[in-house]
Write a sequence for this structure.
């Protein structure tokens, strides 16, 4: 699928050609605690799968930011030699949120940066304010700032043809906007990203400290086709939310006036840490390379979810990789990557 140049300004869908995928390597044992080494192992496994070449020998370029010598040594040990390693400062690994949203405008690449306040003031590291600019620099893109509006890349899901999905609980939260207005948010997304229509869901997953990022809830497989989850097990803490998401999406139309085709895959169901706390495990937090679609997995629902995704994405090899340790930090594979589309 090649870039659609029918819109003068637009983010691409992640199945369109990608020039690079940027990510920040776990570098702080103080932040990650007992999950530090496990998170590094999971980073190595999913990024290696992500960077695997397809049958034509094409592989997406991995740009890996390393905050110190220890992080770089850990990354080089676990990643292909083809990865590019860049020394830079960053607070933590969540490049989807601290990095830019890349858009194409008249054949040029632009990195759009919104305001970022640590997911509503929950986790604030000064270096997270600067890594977005460094990613834009490495991409050779223009920078465009919308710092008066606070949001994160994981809160925004695009079909590449003018449609976006988002949750009200994240975008319109008073911990991000002083006077949240759905109409004002839509106007900003149109100006900043060329979005013609926003499909709004109410909530994200239970216990998600991002206040409901969409990349744990609903993702476009391609324009007109959206994927969401179905409950797994009798104790799935998001059972009612999964059903509501599917209902709203099944009644929605996109920017082209198409009624959405809704495809559902099993959720991981209940996932807790050793203390019994519920964590927002999701199979939706996948990321796409040239050969593999890499899905985070957690529970006995993994094989069923991989099979379901393979039916939806026959052009890729769908592989499941553990994200149990990364999730203890708050997210998974999509959360820690920033896509740079080809222009």
């Amino acid at each position: 699928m090649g870039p659609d140049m029918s819109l003068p300004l637009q983010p691409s869908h992640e199945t369109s050609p990608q020039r690079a995928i940027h990510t920040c390597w776990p570098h702080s044992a103080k932040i990650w605690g007992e999950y530090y080494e496990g998170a590094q192992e999971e980073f190595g496994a999913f990024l290696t799968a992500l960077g695997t070449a397809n049958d034509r020998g094409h592989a997406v370029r991995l740009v890996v930011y390393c905050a110190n010598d220890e992080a770089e040594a850990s990354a080089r040990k676990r990643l292909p030699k083809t990865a590019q390693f860049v020394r830079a400062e960053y607070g933590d690994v969540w490049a989807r949120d601290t990095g830019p949203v890349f858009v194409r405008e008249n054949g040029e690449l632009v990195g759009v940066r919104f305001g970022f306040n640590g997911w509503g003031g929950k986790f604030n590291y000064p270096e997270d304010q600067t890594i977005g600019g460094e990613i834009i620099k490495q991409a050779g893109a223009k920078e465009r700032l919308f710092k008066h509006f606070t949001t994160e890349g994981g809160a925004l899901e695009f079909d590449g043809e003018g449609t976006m999905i988002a949750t009200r609980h994240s975008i319109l939260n008073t911990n991000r906007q002083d006077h949240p207005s759905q109409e004002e948010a839509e106007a900003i997304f149109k100006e900043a990203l060329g979005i013609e229509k926003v499909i709004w869901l109410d909530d994200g997953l239970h216990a998600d400290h991002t206040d409901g990022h969409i990349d744990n809830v609903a993702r476009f497989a391609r324009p007109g086709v959206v994927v969401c989850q179905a409950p797994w097990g009798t104790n799935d803490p998001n059972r009612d939310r999964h059903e509501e998401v599917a209902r709203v999406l099944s009644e929605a139309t996109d920017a082209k006036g198409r009624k959405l085709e809704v495809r559902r895959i099993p959720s991981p169901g209940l996932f807790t840490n050793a203390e019994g706390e519920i964590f927002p495990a999701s199979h939706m937090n996948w990321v796409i390379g040239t050969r593999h679609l890499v899905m985070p997995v957690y529970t006995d629902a993994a094989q069923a979810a991989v099979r379901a995704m393979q039916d939806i994405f026959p052009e890729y090899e769908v592989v499941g990789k553990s994200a149990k340790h990364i999730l203890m930090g708050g997210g998974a594979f999509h959360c820690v990557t920033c896509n740079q589309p080809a222009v």
Q: What stands out?
A: Confidence is low (pLDDT under 50) at residues 1-6.
